[in-house]
Design goal:
Rossmann fold, four-stranded parallel β-sheet, alpha/beta, single chain, seven-stranded mixed β-sheet
């Protein structure tokens, strides 16, 4: 949606939620594109924490992003301005005098901070949670452009998010390495990967890495089917099995495994790989090993694919501001990038469609999802 707004002079960038390969590429493209237009570019430290608690930063909670500051960062993992998946400003946790915790809305403070620092616009880079914050800030009058980021690839209205390709590539490399050790010892290797409530990483990495079993949130698994697949391979003379498990996978009639849940942040999933591994070993007697790739999927150098998407998104965010856009998310619609309202992109998770070609490809190749009959 186009608005008639005052000329832009100063733009702030925020990176929120879990880190992902490609964040620095977004920052670099946005900063260089903004400087080319004569704008001043700034970075908010650690999501919005730099605005809400600036006293915690010796350099200040908002830093100037110059050409020198973003030089040579395209290939670097992480984010030079920091990120956070805690202290959501819409549900900010505070401790009351009696020790109880309560969540308060501090988004009005962010709006006031933008006015205080004479910042004209915000580029918020993040997943569903960060985009929801950006949507609220847009409704409160800030000029906001959102850039979708998540290794989970679960954001709606964009073909893919940057960070996903890098995560899949690393997972495949790990699975490749496990094949030789699994075959040498005749073991079952269970590999747990991130993805929260969507199975994209497990599915694509599992197929590319020649897994035998893939367990994803979209298809609740029957543990007896897991055991049947292991025994089927044994009967055929294949004495090892590779099982890829998404952290959000759950058994039929069961729930996801939650490691931690605290105020001001999303629940942290994990532990399903350990459960599956223990059940396989107990019920088959086969030696079973668990590998949890976890945050290794978030770190390291972004792939060329992720770098290019991130650079395109960063430059497109500046173009959107220059064109008078606000309240929109940059989306990939190959071969183009386009703008979609943030409100349409949040609140609806993009999961693996059960009728998708990629899912059918796996089944055609004999990969089991261990769904009940």
């Amino acid at each position: 949606m186009t608005q008639v707004l005052k000329p832009i002079k100063r733009v702030a960038i925020s990176t929120g939620g879990g880190d992902a390969p490609g964040l620095n590429a977004v920052i670099r493209a946005a900063v260089l594109s903004g400087l080319k237009r004569g704008w001043e570019m700034y970075g908010i430290r650690d999501g919005f924490h730099g605005m809400l608690s600036p006293e915690q930063y010796p350099e200040g909670g908002i830093i100037r992003l110059t050409r020198d500051r973003v030089r040579g960062i395209t290939h670097q993992g992480g984010t030079i301005i920091g990120t956070s998946n805690r202290n959501n400003p819409m549900r900010y946790p505070i401790t009351l005098p009696d020790g109880r915790q309560e969540e308060v809305d501090r988004t009005d403070e962010i709006v006031r901070a933008f006015a205080l620092h004479q910042l004209d616009a915000l580029i918020t880079v993040g997943g569903d949670g960060s985009l929801a914050i950006g949507n609220v800030l847009s409704q409160k009058g800030l000029r906001v452009i959102a850039v979708p980021k998540t290794i989970d690839n679960d954001l709606d209205k964009t073909d893919v998010t940057f960070g996903f390709d890098s995560a899949v590539a690393f997972a495949v490399d790990g699975i490749d390495r496990l094949h030789s050790t699994a075959a040498s010892h005749g073991r079952v290797m269970v590999v747990e990967v991130m993805g929260r409530y969507a199975g994209w990483i497990a599915l694509e990495a599992g197929i590319a890495g020649s897994a035998d079993i893939i367990l994803i949130p979209e298809i609740p698994y029957d543990i007896t089917k897991v055991l049947e697949k292991v025994k089927e391979r044994e009967a055929a003379g294949r004495f090892f099995t590779i099982v890829v498990v998404a952290e959000g996978a759950k058994p039929v009639g069961g729930n996801v495994s939650v490691v931690e849940k605290e105020a001001g942040r999303a629940e942290r999933l994990g532990g399903v790989g350990e459960k599956v591994s223990a059940e396989i070993m107990e019920l088959t007697g086969k030696e079973t090993r668990l590998v949890v790739l976890g945050h290794l999927l978030r770190g390291g150098t972004p792939t060329a694919f992720d770098r290019l998407i991130a650079l395109r998104f960063g430059a497109a965010a500046i173009r959107a501001l220059a064109e008078g856009q606000s309240g929109v998310m940059i989306a990939l619609d190959p071969p183009y990038v386009k703008y979609v309202p943030i409100s349409e992109a949040i609140g609806k998770m993009k999961q693996v469609p059960l009728d998708s070609d990629i899912l059918q490809t796996a089944k055609d190749m004999g990969i089991s999802f261990c769904e009940p009959d």
